[in-house]
Amino acid sequence: MSLDAAVPRLVERSWAGALSLALRLVFVLMLLAIVAQAAIVVHARPQDLITGAHGMADIIRRAVPPDFVKIDIVWWPALETIDLAIFGTVGGVIMALPLAILAAVNVTPSRYLYYGARGVIGFARAVPDLVWALLFVTAVGLGPFPGALALSVHSIGMLGRLFAETIEHMDMAPIDALTLTGARRVQVFTHGIIPSILPSLLGIALYRFDENIRSSLVLGFVGAGGIGFELLSAMSLFQYQLVSLLLIVTFVMVIAAERFSALLRARLG
Amino acid sequence: MLRVRGLTMRYPDGKLALADFDLTIAAGELVVALGGNGSGKTTLLRCISRTLPPTAGEIWLNDANLAALSGERLRQARLPLAMIWQHASLVRRRSVLSNVASGALGRYGGLWTALGGLPAVERRAAYDHLGAVGLAALAGQGAGTLSGGQAQRVAIARALAQRPQVLLADEPVASLDPEAADDIMRLVRHLATHGRLAVLCVLHQVELAYAYADRVVGIRDGRIAFDRPRADLPRDAVRQLYLSEAA
Description:
The structure holds two protein chains of two kinds.
Chain A: H1 3-41, H2 46-63, H3 72-102, H4 111-126, H5 129-140, H6 144-168, H7 173-180, H8 185-219, H9 227-236, H10 240-268
Helix pairs in contact in A: 2-10, 3-4, 3-6, 3-8, 3-9, 4-6, 5-6, 6-8, 7-8, 8-10, 9-10
Chain B: E1 2-10, E2 16-25, E3 30-34, H1 41-48, E4 56-61, E5 64-65, H2 71-78, E6 81-84, H3 96-101, H4 111-114, H5 120-132, H6 148-161, E7 166-170, H7 178-195, E8 198-202, H8 206-212, E9 215-220, E10 223-229, H9 235-246
Parallel strand pairs in B: 3-8, 3-9, 6-7, 7-8
Antiparallel strand pairs in B: 1-2, 1-4, 4-5, 9-10
Helix pairs in contact in B: 5-6, 6-7
């Protein structure tokens, strides 16, 4: 190509480059504008952090040392928190699995059931677990049971979606092969689908258990049992040394659950 | 015995994949279907197995016309028909033995098999089927650890667990090296002769057809180009089958 012919192309490219740069600049400005409006809407006042530092330091001073003498009264709420997560996860898995089968486009027996299951899963997920807990506290009263129900129902939404996606992405060739041997639908499910996806499902369920431990801490704030309820009570009574003890136990529980879940998921491969 | 009469398949886009196809395969007979890409070989197998509903025609397996059946009646009537594919399509996370025994599930309807169990008698039979394909030693191994040739043998053993009268094989050696391909074809030949199976096998390897088939059916544009005994199969006729594709 001659130099004369190349020059107009280079000029065109430089125009295209300038336009691309301008578009990127606009994009960055738009992002900044979005962050700025968020700061305005949430009344962000960084100066309050400085003026509030004294108050925070005072709370920390009153929380140290943690009141280890009261460790005896922490065990039960701690166990309750773990059991909330266990019940919530197991309940969620039991209900999410059949829904996920109906909500997976490649194995659902009917289009209507597919949309119905998707609707249930979407609704269970859209309503936060805290709101479910408030509803169940109203329905069955205070205590850990409404918390366990709340975690179960919210887990249906989270697990149902992930289970359905796992089923949709599985290799269908072995399933089709099994179907063609004359196996019935339920046999194809138990002998083909479940063995193929079981490790993935268990991994997802363990991850959910880890999430549910965290969620169950907050549920106590609305009277749904667990260590969160003790934490709220201690804060209301200004027992900051007990608060720090509860936070330490919480920290240990969360980290232990996280490690346990990660370890099992790694073993599942 | 398998009898196909006037089998026609027209896809929703109007493409005619099979046109008025007639074919009969007797027990103990190995018929190889040859043809270029898109000639209709795989469509033929999919229609016979009823994974694709044919537009017209009859598919007789024993006394049942599979083309006229659906639902539970089709499932029951299709039980004597087994199929193997290019890829073995095993459940990789189950043992070799369980994969083979699962071929018998269609004969059982109880709670035990619905919950994932396998009848003890079928587990023992599966071991025998694995012996028949030369892999009894791998019974306890995970199916995901097998080589391509081993996996295909296990797929054949699973087909045997079905107690079939007809075996459809869709390019069963396409992804295997020549030695493994030869082994598989020798096994299929053995099953046809000694197990009295009617076998319809789609192949791309012409030499394997010459080595193992009783009859060779040439397919071109969804129609039978020729249907001859292997001994009476001119090489020119086979060459024409693929030349027409190139043209």
